[in-house]
Amino acid sequence: MTKIAVAGKGGSGKTTVAGVLARLLAENGREVLTVDADENPNLGISLGLGVERTYELVSAREAMLPDGPAISGPMEEIVDRFAAEAGERLRIVQVRKFDEFRPG
Amino acid sequence: MRVVFLGKGGSGKSTLAGLLCAELAGRGERVVAIDADTVPGLDQVLGMESTDDWSLAGTAVREHGGWRLDGSAAEIVDRCARQGPGGVRFLQMGNVDARLKEHELRREQHVDRWSGTVAFNTVSRIFDEEGGWTIVDLQGGTLQVANGLVGTAGVAVLVVEPFAKSVLTARRFAEMGRWPKGIRLVGVASKVASADDEAYVQRALDTLGVPLWVSVPTDPAVQGAERSRQALVTLPADAPARRAVARLAELLAEAGAVTASTH
Amino acid sequence: MLAQLEDKPGRVVVVDLGGGVMTVARGDKSEVDALVVVVEPYPRSAEVGRRLLQMAAEKGIDRRIVVANKVTGNDDVALIRDLLGVEPDLVIPQDTSVRAADREGASPVDYDGASPALGVLRDLASSLVDA
Q1: Which residue in A84, B49, B104, C87 has the most C-beta neighbors within 10 A?
Q2: Residue B31 is inside which H or E element, if any?
């Protein structure tokens, strides 16, 4: 398994790089899992899911972060539950949730 | 009045927030600028050096399970704010090095320190009560907004560039639901290079029911200043970006006057 | 979190860490085999890149790849080189078809497979998994 992380200042093009990279690797026959850890998760667009589908992706935040509800199980199962198909050999899982307003 | 800049990373929030501070200060207004991003940006736009110092953390004491500011708002500003151009007072909230040091201190010394979020909320509310302008450059995500950093009154400026990801980000902000009633959500088109670009952003904002207040063109003067690390606030007043921000300031002043007259 | 995923052969995980430095600051080298740092040719972008590279080095993330993006000419590369103190590993030029794809909300891969940016990204893909 090869784990590649992409980082940079907002607007640098890192999401485009990450998404295109993932698509190219999947096209080359790799089994690719993409993880969107951005507060504003737009990776789906760079994968080719389109705006609407990207907007509708459900986050796995509740499962993965300490202050979320307790969900036990191997990481693999959590990913399987929340990951969405993004193409052949390509999946995406969002790990941040965009929130509703909270009082206080 | 509080003006909060929201938008996707790289959209031009820091640039616009900084130019607005300069514009308002130039009109003789009292301005406090707050950078809530973990990566310094607003201070550089203002021509100030970035520092690792996060003196806000030391200004609160625990009391009755909550926090009390140690001193009046004026004292806190005097202690923590740095002097920027034209009398703008600048508060750094999110600097990552300072934050990391704070995390280490919490772990090692079990010191119950005032978190950045609480500090920000408390301090900025005091500014709201005092009058003058509080200009806030918020980090790119919706989490900060949900945590109440946008306040309960004022104007939230959505900065939108003419491409899909920027519009999707704006949509998330606009559709967060239950925006505090006292906050007016408005839009600014950023890095507009053509009439097409402006129309693109206009359509997107229309769909969201957010008014487009000004369109800020791509400005070679701004790009040049960024590259040479020249403070953007030194750009001439007739630079296209500055003229657009001047218009934004007028609209904000009108909005502020309306708010004041209804209270 | 990534370290807990099953180590399937042929599997690649690509993580978009988001803008800024906090995700890397909180991360651990066990979660990453390679860190790609994307930088645009202006000081504030390069400064973030510089911090990211420094943090990654301090955490023992040895494979760090610098991508200079939206480059319009040699001056841009020189600027990045000077600000980062290292030569970029890859240079992606300003690409009109990527901009057009961005406008429409499409992936550049679906828009114009022959665009210059995609050529560079194919090189990046090969270097990351074939090495």
Answers
A1: A84
A2: strand B31-35
Residue A5 above 50 pLDDT?
yes
HEC per residue, chain C: CHHHCCCCCCEEEEEEEEECCHHHHHCCHHHCCEEEEEECCCHHHHHHHHHHHHHHHHCCCCCEEEEEEEECCHHHHHHHHHHHCCCCCEEEECCHHHHHHHHHCCCHHHHCCCCHHHHHHHHHHHHHHHC
Is B2-254 assigned to CATH 2.60.40.10? no
What's the CATH fold of domain C16-130? Rossmann fold (3.40.50)
C100 to chain B: closest CA residue:
B163
Interface test with C, best of B46, B163, B192 (most C CBs within 10 A): B163
Reported as a pLDDT band with limits 50, 70 and 90, residue A79 is confident
* Set of chain B residues whose Cβ sits within 8 Å of the Cβ of A56: none
Domain boundaries, chain B: 2-254
On the CB side of B51, CA atoms within 13 Å amount to: 12
Least confident stretch, B137-151, C19-33, C100-114: B137-151
Least confident piece of the model among B187-191, C19-23, C103-107:
C19-23
Percentage of residues in chain C with pLDDT exceeding 70?
Answer: 98
Between positions 42 and 81 of A, the ones with CB within 8 A of C are 43, 45-48, 50-51, 64, 74-76, 79
* Structural domain spans, chain C: 16-130
Q: Which residues pair with B82 in a beta bridge?
A: B90
The residue that leads in pLDDT, B148 or B6, is B6
